[in-house]
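Can you give me the bound-state structure? Components:
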Amino acid sequence: MVSPVAEPLVRFVNVRKSYDGTVDAVRALDLEVARSEFLTLLGPSGSGKTTTLTMLAGFEQPTEGRIFVDGEDVTDVPVEKRGIGMVFQNYALFPNMTVAENIAFPLRVRRVSRAEMTAKVARALSMVRLDGFGDRKPQQLSGGQQQRVAVARALVFEPRLILLDEPLGALDRQLREQMQYELKHLHQRLDVTMVYVTHDQVEAMTMSDRVAVFSTGTLRQVAEPRRLYEAPESLFVARFLGESNALSATVRQRDSGRCVATLMTGETVTAVMPAACATGSAVHLVVRPEKVLLGKAAQASPNRFAARIAEVTFLGDQTRLRLVVFGADDFIVKLANSAGQDSFAPGAEIDIGWQAEDCRALAE
Amino acid sequence: MPSQNDARAGWRPRHGTYWLIILPALAMLVFLYLVPLADVLVTSITDPKPGLDNYLLLFTSTSVQKTLLTTLRIAALTTFIALLLGYVVAYAMRAANSSQQRLMLFCVLLPFWISVLVRSFAWIALLSSRGPVNAGLMAWGLIDEPLPLVRNETGVLIGMVHVMLPYAVLTLYANMRGIDVRLVAAARSLGASRFQAFRMVFLPLTRPGLIGAGTLVFILSLGFYVTPALLGGGKVLMIAEYVAVQINDTLRWGLGTMLATTLMLSVLFALWALSRIIDVKRLFGA
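Here's the bound-state model for the whole set.
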């Protein structure tokens, strides 16, 4: 996680924030954002992701700990002196100003000359593909256009860091997806550092270099999207990103990153164990639905079990099976649809299995 | 009672019933308000003789002009001071938490429940040369002689601002509550100092509130009678008192009704002008 080569742009050091003195909104936070990185803070509401962003922006002070930007301790620096661009959830465009005046605002308060201001505003407008919209009032624009104005306003003064607080939350699905790619491309083009807050895991996966997953005030894991999905370090992360089958089990044997565990129903499973757990301790065995092998393919795998199909759902590009196995009926398997595939019928018996490396034993 | 008649006639009978319900109020309005008002209008152009002679006095009589100027000056000053103080109070109310807000709102509304007459006498007692205000200032050694705070224009202004402040506060507060606080936060994050964020974002957004509160206070101030009569000590003659003198003492009804009509038309004009600038209904929370 810690890059030893380059100094990170942002560093949270042991930050804690409590609004009321009893409950911690964020606790023991150590987080680094690399230069030119697109980092997403992901988590359900109340997980502390927005509080973290708010502290970085300077609207809230940490109760404990320090925040560094560019090596400088900014913990006590007021909002306006931090030089951080921010895009708000509701855009927060000034209704009393035109689009151009909105974008010029950060330049105006920095006393940039008129000629330079005009040039920069024009450049920012074209960057977000809104040339010619400068004289409109924000209220006259669509949601997606307002969103782009907010982005242009946040980057027009060339800040070292741009924060985005669920900026796509108010847009409809199609526009959201389009804006995700637009933001991603903007990030690549401008080589600026962005910290993005969202509760939408797909959004996080689509845009981010790295994702930081939060739950109940704690940072659970920071990693590249792929690593986060394939090698979650906690049950929470496994469940929050995509679908997972989680089986309660007890560790029986362990050696060098692997373990053999027994399920409640008596079956024995071989799994990968990322963090060392003592023999006899309780773990959750997590298997992704698309990693489960079926029928003949399952017979070669070390973990093999007999199951019965409870439900078959056709989803276009894939088929989703709900299976009765391990004493429950909520084991999910997904497989990509292809020509000449076996058809599945509810009630049929079927063999399932998975490779040891596709199953992770995670402590609670 | 409900016959086939009702069913066939549809909404018509019900429509008629509604009219009956508002009839007493309508009759009262017409006979006790509109008819006398028309009488005032007629009197102003017929007494003592038919013609616009009374209205000519607006341009010829120095005492009428002096009264009008005094009225305009006091109304304008009252408006300015009430807006300034009201803005501060409304701003503080907006920033306060909800229990503080309730308390502040209660304090703002409290004077509404006390008669203007009582308040005027209270101000006379407080501000007179031997009243607690002057006594206190002298005790602290801030002044050597009592300040003339009452029975003059200063007294009238203090009393009128006191009466008008709740109107200014409530109108401004309604306007400020509609402003998204995140706009100010956004301004700060974009590099504006507290003052810049206020001046460039918050203040312009309260313009409709300022215009609305200003017009309201100004219009109400024009017609003040009791407060200037008592706190002015007979030295500050505003239009309402001037009218009263013409009606009660000098019996120049034509002049009195002309001034009353002029006042009413000015107010109507001001309201019309206001409605051209902003949405009056939204401003007063309708």
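A couple of observations. The interface with chain B takes residues 57-59, 78-80, 83-86, 88, 90, 92, 94-96, 105-106, 108-110, 153-154, 157 of chain A (CB under 8 Å). The longest strand of chain A covers residues 303-314.
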